[in-house]
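Q: Here's a chain of 147 amino acids. Please give me its 3D structure as tokens.
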Amino acid sequence: MMVRKAQNLCESCPLLKSCLYDAVVKHDVSGYVAQTTQRQRAEIRRRLGVTVTPEDFDTLAGVTSPNRQVDHEEVLRLRRANPDESLETLAHRLGCSLSTVKRHLRRARTEASTPRPAPARRPSPEQVAAVAQDVVSGTGRRPRVAA
């Protein structure tokens, strides 16, 4: 009954298509989203060849703890946002050593000088919607094989 209510709410939402696309392609969302369950979205990703990395909520929230690896992108983001701050100050904000900050900045310089492979092509919102329709409706479902 709750799933049916959620389906009805999602069906009338003008953001359904973009919500589904974001939940499948951009973020690893848990629970019921855009008329799909977490298991259905995993199947949609599998069929489309999409890989979504889980969010690092500790880094996003600025949580630091001993023996926690410092996120490379967070070091670069802080450096870009505060170009006039000393590296010692950045290290203190990140809860790491000065040498860790320097190591991440050296890595960024090295990576900038090497050519990058082309990013993986993302499916279009229409492709995601078509595969989602197939998965949710149960068409194209593979028969289960007895063990």
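Q: Can you summarize the key feature?
A: The chain has two domains: 2-50+123-137, 57-113.
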